[in-house]
Design a protein that fits this description.
The structure is a single chain. Strands 3-2-1-4-5-6-7-8 form an eight-stranded mixed β-sheet, with helices on both faces. The longest helix is centred in the first third of the chain and has 19 residues. The chain is α/β, with parallel strands linked by helices and 326 residues long. Bound molecules: 1,4-dihydronicotinamide adenine dinucleotide and the ligand C[N+](C)(C)CC(=O)CC(=O)[O-]. Ligand L46V6VHR binds next to α7.
Length: 326
């Protein structure tokens, strides 16, 4: 294990955060950290990165205002820098959200490691790569962790935190405490599992959905309705395990397993991913357009943001950990 130089700032005292890669997720992180009162620097190589990022933050701000901004929180505390080095030069925490390409992540994390002050933890938003595979080019890999968020990071509380083989356990613990101080709900994983926990589950559902569209067994709309009108209502506040324990009545999970366990062997699920050929691609895109029924992506983002806030409020999770923050 490569020791991380002692972390220079305690997780609760962090004031300056750098976000590298400012698309859907990086921009969402920027909005979250600004709303929590941090100074944020951001860098993204795209020529239109700054206006695009500022538009994203502006669009998220009404939802964040409804949630309650931290004292002093302001969009003016965002600085978009011309270089990666400037973005991270004074950072007390770095969140990388560049495209999901292994070689790109490897090179970028090595560059970030070289440019970031010693003792600053660097987290990757990757949705599935193990840190062990991404930290190979870094001189001090001990401070590199995965901090996997959920879209949009400014509203969905969960972050999955896990280190790689060469990550220092102190860096993982530090990152988990930092995210909690920044208002997130954290699962600190003990070992590296590709896709972490939630994406393993989501991908299984997603694979089945694509197979059903490919085989003409269900439409995009039916797949979405089957979740929003069904299990999704329960999953917002009770996970799939405890929910199924109730399917066993007074006998709980034990009876549920005795009763329905054998059907696990029924050939209900296809473990292999379907071929994402043009026909399936077009069917899924057209199905989503039809379901959107003229609503733009911006309309849907606003609808989703309000929906998430309503669910958090209705299930007693507002303000999420706000009182513990900073
Ligand atoms: N979109 C999603 O729902 C989620 C995505 N993630 C992860 O977040 C990361 C970013 O994904 P998205 O924001 O969806 O992608 P995106 O395509 O929206 O944004 C990626 C951004 O990275 C920038 N970029 C390109 N090359 C770069 C480089 N060398 N260094 C820094 N930035 C660079 C692009 O200009 C773009 O603005 C990925 O690792 C992805 O797996 C994690 C959770 C959810
Ligand atoms: C689609 N995705 C795999 C990039 C999704 C995630 O990683 C998490 C999320 O927001 O659902």
């Amino acid at each position: 294990m490569d020791r991380t130089p002692t972390m220079t700032t305690t997780p609760q005292d962090v004031r300056r955060v750098a976000c590298v890669g400012a698309g859907v997720i990086g921009g969402g992180w920027v909005a979250h950290f600004l709303a929590r009162g941090y100074d944020v620097t951001a860098w993204d190589p795209a020529p239109d990165a700054e206006p695009r990022l500022r538009r994203l933050v502006e669009a998220a701000w009404p939802a964040l205002t409804r949630l309650g901004l931290a004292e002093g929180a302001s969009q003016d505390r965002l600085t978009v820098t011309a270089t990666l080095e400037e973005a991270v030069a004074d950072a007390e925490f770095v969140q990388e959200s560049a495209p999901e390409k292994l070689e790109l992540k490897r090179d970028l994390l090595a560059k970030l490691d070289a440019a970031t002050p010693a003792g600053t933890v660097i987290a990757s938003s990757t949705s599935g790569y193990p840190m062990t595979d991404m930290q190979t080019g870094a001189a001090t890999p001990g401070r590199l962790v995965v901090g996997h968020p959920f879209n949009p990071p400014y509203l969905i509380p969960l972050v999955e935190v896990v280190g790689g083989e060469r990550t220092d356990a102190d860096a993982v613990a530090w990152a988990s405490r930092f995210y909690e101080a920044a208002g997130k709900s954290v699962i600190t994983m003990k070992s590296e599992v590709p896709g972490f926990i939630a994406n393993r589950l989501q991908e299984a559902l997603w694979r089945e959905a694509l197979h059903m569209v490919a085989n003409g067994e269900a439409t995009v709309q039916e797949i979405d309705d089957s979740i929003t009108e069904g299990p999704g209502l329960r999953w917002a506040f009770m996970g799939p395990m405890l929910t199924f324990a109730l399917a066993g009545g007074e006998g709980g999970m034990a009876h549920m397993l005795d009763h329905f366990g054998p059907s696990l062997k029924s050939p209900w699920t296809r473990l292999e991913a379907p071929e994402l050929d043009k026909k399936l691609y077009d069917a899924v895109v057209a199905g989503c357009d039809e379901e959107a029924a003229g609503r733009t992506i911006a309309d849907l983002v606003a609808e989703r943001d309000q929906g998430v806030i309503d669910v958090l409020r209705a299930t007693g999770r507002l303000p999420h950990r706000r009182e513990e923050a900073k």
